[in-house]
């Protein structure tokens, strides 16, 4: 007796259900890239927070400038890249830091370096995408901008509003209140409310969380609601491991106690890490591609088209002027023909309008006859 082939057992099985597995294997093999811009004045714990988020040390040899150097200090851009691997998944993380932002006496143009860098990365990607070799395009576009707000202010400063207003249509902005352990719970809540009110008054739109699908489980929906309610995130960072009640925690030691960075009652650190890494990293990249980059690309194409039209018009004018007496060469017969064409066009328009009126009149009469018959 012949043995039945294995594929005869599942005649209704086609096989495309394995597509997600194929995409997963290919993506894991290729690895992932993520670019994070960090903006804020010195002393707000930006470096400590980044090291706490990704469990690394990106700023080993960094030197802090003294007061004299900060007086004339200008904003610059520093890129640091690290490769992270977790459970076989590789992530190439690029952190774009902006040392000098807000440190000088005159901070009017501090935003300029940030906007120029974001536009340069968009422009480079657009150039690579328009080239012949598009197989190995390196994506250096900024996918998220963490903007640090000082905890000792009453709300957003004019310098903060100037930068956010210029960036909110170019990059996904996430506001972070640095060194939130300077405030109690009530002060944190009031500061968040004032910041959100300032954003609304100035028509500034931060990164918008996508809506949960109806088929998501209740735990995920609850987590999503908590993340949305936590904006802006009030965080505390620490690279120190302390032992509290027999447990090792990442925190900060004070004379009156320990601030546990990973305790939701003390800080929004866990919520920020969950949002930035676990749940919304891919959506940040998709929003950068589908919204911010597409806006930049549309502007570039529009500028190229306008430039081409201007060049074409210039060439046409040059060719007309190069002909000897082109206008004089137009004979009286040509002018009469042009006039006749214009009259014919006007008559055709009038005829079309008359036909439309007759058609409407005919429809009205038919409706009137129908009403008489109904009576």
Automatic annotation (TrEMBL):
User: Does the keyword field hold Cell cycle?
Assistant: yes
Q: Which UniProt keywords apply?
A: Cell cycle, Cell division, Cytoplasm, GTP-binding, Nucleotide-binding
| The keyword rRNA-binding appears for this protein | no
InterPro entries per the UniProt record, alphabetical? G_SEPTIN_dom, P-loop_NTPase, Septin
Question: Where is it mainly found?
Answer: cytoplasm
Among Pfam families, the record links this protein to: Septin
Which PROSITE patterns does the entry mention?
A: G_SEPTIN (PS51719)
Q: Name one GO cellular component term.
A: cytoplasm
* GO biological process terms held by the UniProt record: cell division
- Compartments, as annotated in UniProt: Cytoplasm
Domain Septin-type G: start-end pairs: 30-303
Instruction: Tell me which CDD domains the record gives.
Output: CDC_Septin
Instruction: Write out the GO MF terms.
Output: GTP binding
Return the similarity comment.
Belongs to the TRAFAC class TrmE-Era-EngA-EngB-Septin-like GTPase superfamily. Septin GTPase family.
Protein name per Swiss-Prot or TrEMBL: Septin
Instruction: Give the organism the record lists.
Output: Drosophila erecta (Fruit fly)
């Amino acid at each position: 007796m012949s043995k039945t082939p294995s594929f005869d057992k599942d005649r209704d099985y086609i096989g495309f259900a394995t597509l997600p597995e194929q995409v997963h294997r290919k993506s894991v093999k290729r690895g992932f890239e993520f670019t994070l811009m960090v903006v804020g004045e010195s002393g707000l714990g930006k470096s400590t927070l980044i090291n706490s988020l990704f469990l690394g040390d990106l700023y080993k040899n960094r030197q802090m400038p003294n007061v004299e150097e900060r007086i004339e200090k200008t904003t610059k851009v520093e890129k640091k890249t690290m490769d992270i691997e977790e459970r076989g998944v590789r992530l190439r993380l690029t952190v774009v830091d902006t040392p000098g932002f807000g440190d000088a006496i005159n901070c009017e143009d501090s935003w300029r370096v940030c906007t120029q860098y974001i536009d340069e990365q968009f422009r480079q990607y657009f150039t690579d995408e328009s080239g012949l070799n598009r197989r190995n395009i390196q994506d250096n576009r900024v996918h998220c901008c963490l903007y640090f707000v000082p905890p000792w202010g009453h709300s957003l400063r004019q310098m903060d509003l100037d930068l956010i207003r210029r960036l909110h249509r170019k990059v996904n902005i996430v506001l972070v209140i640095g060194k939130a352990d300077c405030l109690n719970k009530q002060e944190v809540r009031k500061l968040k409310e004032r910041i959100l009110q300032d954003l609304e008054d100035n028509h500034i739109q931060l990164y918008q969380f996508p809506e949960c699908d109806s088929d998501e489980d209740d735990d995920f929906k609850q987590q999503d609601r908590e993340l949305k309610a936590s904006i802006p995130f009030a965080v505390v960072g620490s690279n120190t491991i302390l032992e509290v009640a027999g447990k090792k925690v990442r925190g900060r030691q004070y004379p009156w106690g320990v601030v546990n960075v990973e305790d939701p009652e003390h800080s929004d650190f866990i919520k920020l890490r969950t949002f930035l890494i676990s749940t919304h990293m891919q959506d940040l990249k998709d929003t950068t591609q589908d919204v911010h980059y597409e806006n930049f690309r549309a502007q570039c194409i529009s500028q190229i088209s306008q430039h081409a039209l201007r060049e074409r018009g210039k060439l046409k004018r040059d060719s007309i002027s190069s002909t000897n007496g082109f206008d004089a060469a137009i004979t009286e017969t040509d002018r009469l023909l042009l006039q006749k064409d214009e009259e014919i066009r006007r008559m055709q328009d009038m005829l079309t309008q008359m036909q439309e009126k007759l058609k409407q009149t005919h429809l009205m009469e038919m409706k009137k006859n129908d009403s008489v018959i109904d009576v």
